[in-house]
Amino acid sequence: MQNMGLDLPQSDRTVRVRLVDTTTVMTVDALAFVDPVQEHHEHLNLTDVAFLIENDTTGQKVMFDLGTRKDYWNLPPVTLNRGAHILSGLKINQDVTEVLEGNGVKLDTISSIIWSHYHWDHTGNPALFPPSTSLVVGPGVTKSPLLLPGYPENPNSVLSAEAFAGRDVIEVNFDTTGLTIGGFRAMDFFGDGSFYLLDTPGHCLGHMCALARTTKDTFAFLGGDICHFVGDFRPSPAVSLPEHIPDGALDHDPAYFPAPCPCNLFTDQHPIVPTSSTDAKTTPFFKVSSHATSVNTDPATAQQSVDTLRAFDASPSVLVCLAHDPELLRFLPTFNEMPSADINGWKENGVKEKVRWGWLNELPRGGRPGRSPLVEGLWRDGRVWEEGRAVLCGEAKA
Ligand SMILES: [Zn+2]
User: Fold this and answer.
1) Please, which residues bridge with residue 320 across strands?
2) CA of residue 258 to ligand 1 center, whole Å
3) Is 224 exposed, middle or buried, given 0-12, 13-18 or 19+ CB atoms closer than 10 A?
4) Which residue, 23, 24, 217, 292, has fewest beta-carbon neighbours within 10 Å?
């Protein structure tokens, strides 16, 4: 059976999936994201993707996530304050609405925005969309007094009230669907088996992933922030590290990476299992962070969701796409660069194999840091915003 271990539902309806680079790049404090943190791996580099989903039968278009609003300094104060404590770099070139319109997609053709969750690097600025675009949120979001009403009516909310103003807000209810996929409760979004929302709790209230049918038998798993680093679920017994890292996965660094590059360069510094153990090739390098500064509101549940994700990663029928995995932008066509290109052909193009081990580039190599920071400092209007951190922390005026 192709979908071994996963109860993937059958349908011949598909969605066209286009990968949108939200142009957000971040360098963040690893302690808030992964556990353990190794020397020379104190920072993580994160890109940030969203997805333009189009039902192949009806033509209906929805966005799954929006990235970060370009004028992030206008986010609610609570949001800015939290962000400032984990960010060492942040840069956003464009709002996702500019990317869409610049490539011929009118905003009034987007029937819904689906938020994987309510964090600022996914919510974008829905107020830029017309009121005809509905907003779809995960379980509990509309009922949380910590979130709604939004800022400024509710000074402590991390969400802006204007995101909701004048538009339909639809909260997904997984209690009544009677559907489960791969261990996650599911909801058939279009009702035709082409696109499912998945209940993936732990990172924050109402966190959802999506499963998009890219062909009759293949899927893209849109991961949101089920975790932030691929090393949280790879390698695994079903996706073990090969003896040599495949060509193309590692950055060009001849001083450190020989060609071919043996995997023990990495397994010898496995942070969890003893280096002599063969388990180093089959055990994820990290857990999700449960540190006091963790971005996860419920780390234990978040870890369970990540553990459940492993079966999807093991399936040859599923491409796992974390919102913050830089490898996606290396090996998949983006809507930004090629608006007519979708990612539906990922399997025939060998993308699953190509993106699999690129996360190793982030790890320390030879007693020094891995990949250089993607961005240093908080950027505003095309340059480093020197007083930015003090402003975001509420210690200075914008
Ligand atoms: Zn995120």
Assistant:
1) 221
2) 33
3) buried
4) 292
| Residue 200 Cα to ligand 1 middle (Å) | 14
User: Which CA distances in Å does 34 have to 270, 308, 335?
Assistant: 14, 17, 30
Ligand 1: centre distance to CA 387 (Å): 24
Q: In the structure encoding, which two tokens stand for residue 26, read together?
A: 């971040």
Domain 15-236+288-392 is of which CATH architecture?
Answer: 4-Layer Sandwich (3.60)
Placement of tokens 């190599």 in the chain:
365
271: DSSP letter: S
Reading the chain (398 residues) residue by residue, the pLDDT tens digits are 344 568 899 999 999 999 999 999 999 999 999 999 999 999 999 999 999 999 999 999 999 999 999 999 999 999 999 999 899 999 999 999 999 999 999 999 999 999 999 999 999 999 999 999 999 999 999 999 999 999 999 999 999 999 999 999 999 999 999 999 999 999 999 999 999 999 999 999 999 999 999 999 999 999 999 999 999 999 999 999 999 999 899 998 888 898 899 999 999 999 999 877 789 999 999 999 999 999 999 999 999 999 999 999 999 999 999 999 999 999 999 999 999 999 999 999 999 999 999 999 999 988 899 999 999 999 999 999 999 999 888 887 66
User: Which tokens belong to 156?
Assistant: 């402590």
One-letter amino acid identity for 291?
H
Are 364 and 38 in contact, with CB atoms under 8 Å apart? yes
